[in-house]
Amino acid sequence: MLDRSKLSFRNKLRLAFLIVTILAVLTTGGLSYSITSNILENNAMKLTQDSVTQSAKIVDEKLNKLMLVMMTFMISQPFRAMLKDVNAMDASSYFIRWTEMDNVFSQARIAEPLIHSIYVSTPIGEFYPSSMNLNRQTVFEKTPLYKRSAQENRNVWIEGHEDTLFLGGNRVVSLILQPISSDPVKDVYVVVNIREEGLRQLLDTGAEGGAEQFLLNGQGQPALQEEGTMIQEAVNSGVITALLNGAQTGYAPDQLNGEDYLFNYARMHLNDWSVVAIQSKGYVLKDLIYVKWMIAAITASCFLLALLVSGAFTGYLLLPLKGLQQVMKRVELNDLTARFESNSQDEIAQIGLRFNRMLEQIVKLIEKVKEAETTKRTTEIKALSAQMDPHFLYNTLNTIYWKLNLNQVETSQKMVVALSRLFQLGLNKGQEVTTLEKELQHVRQYLELQMFCYERLFTFEIEVSEEELIMLPVPRIMLQPLVENSILHGFDLMDSGGLINIRVERSPDREFCIIRVRDNGSGMDASEVSSKGERSNDGGYAIGNLISRLQLYYGDRAELRLDSAPDQGVTATITLPLEGEMQHVRS
């Protein structure tokens, strides 16, 4: 596989030429192929739709002619005479009527060759052409034809089936008619058997473009016997049933067994049957194979041409870059007087000019950095001094003064030592990072000083669950803001009984150090907890400032959480990672 990171810019540029050229050719070819295939598909579907519509029209006209022939048959004198005998239930003239109607049967079959046979069932007997051999084993009232006619009580079209009324086992489509009579007549059924093969020939005559046409009844089932499995699979899949729920005519592409097919249909007007055509999309688009090969040949030719031309283009385009590269090599050798020169105004020339300006800025910045280094230490000391709480310092010195006035020399000495130790641990020799042991000593000195200032107001406890945790590197002056918050705000309404507990322990997964600072002060509601990110009114460390420092040093791995409720004290929990602790440490 090609490692693009090791390619030279020249080769990358040539590769870009080739990719753009091939993509353009493939995109053009793909769009051309897609447009052509869509045009061919639409033209094929429209052509097939015209064929299907024409076939439906031909079948409709043929069946309408058959209906007209049968109406003529039913208004003939012999048929009306037969109906008169049926109404009178007079069977004495049966053979005379049968002989008279035989001529009418022949005329109907001559008028419409599609008719295979005609059968009339009446209470006084059966009438049929004398040339046909009636199946004596079959009783009309027990056939599916009779059941369908009795259920629907109208002219009924019966799908293709084997003729059970006459011998020979011919495949026919049956039409059961109600007799035309001015007088009410019961239990008279006229069955017209149509040659199934004749209907199929009508459909095959209109089929074009490799399409297979077939008839479906109103329930979406084949009206004729179909030997092809594809038609039966299309019917069973439900694709055609969904298609027939649309308008009078229509077409749509769909899939069958993972292959694409085109479906067309047209409803017939005489009954609820439809003519449907199905054809393979691959057959319709077979001529596009030539287009595919043409696109492949054009792509290969363009690739070779781009390969030849790209070398000359890249050489010309890289000339300014080579000049800029030489200037950079001189700068790399500490020659800050090197400058890029070009008469062009293109983007590379603009980069060169900005590189010249950057060199000038670098020279100025070097001078500024040297000057800044000399003042850096002074600035850090001033910043640390600014962090000290002047209110706390004033209170402490004032307490020492009054205790000296009261001759409490020993207490005053302890306070001075504690204050000195507090400053020593807080300054930490200018280092921003200290150990947890020194941080606990710092907060202990602070709390002892505050106990001298606020006698009997509170007591404190410091607990460390594991001795090795005290060597953990932590930011300095991290705990003082939390205990200061407890003294100034948690115990402000108390005269005595305050308690501050500081506990250091390892998290259950042993990957974090947990430091909890609890007090039993007045507590805070939810709004006060959320407002602790702002600077305190007393000018000391703000909780928000501490959160910012923790995020600066540890990123998202450290956390400070406040839990409190009114009259239930405050618990501040600091979570510090034990591995890869510091992300940023100031020197």
From TrEMBL:
| Stored SUPFAM superfamilies | ATPase domain of HSP90 chaperone/DNA topoisomerase II/histidine kinase, HAMP domain-like
Q: Which residues form a coiled coil?
A: 355-382
Concerning InterPro entries, the annotation shows:
Bact_2-comp_sensor_kinase (IPR050640), HAMP_dom (IPR003660), HATPase_C_sf (IPR036890), HATPase_dom (IPR003594), Sig_transdc_His_kin_internal (IPR010559)
What residue stretches are annotated with the HAMP domain? 315-367
Known EC number(s)? 2.7.13.3
**Which SMART domains does the record match to this protein?**
HAMP
Bilayer-crossing regions: 293-319
Protein topology in the membrane: Multi-pass membrane protein
Under the heading Pfam families, the entry gives: HAMP, HATPase_c, His_kinase
The protein's GO terms of the molecular function aspect are: protein histidine kinase activity
Keyword terms, alphabetized:
Cell membrane, Coiled coil, Kinase, Membrane, Phosphoprotein, Transferase, Transmembrane, Transmembrane helix
Q: Does the keyword Membrane apply?
A: yes
Q: Which domain of life is it from?
A: Bacteria
Cellular location(s): Cell membrane
Name the record gives this protein:
Two-component system sensor histidine kinase YesM
UniProt organism field: Paenibacillus qinlingensis
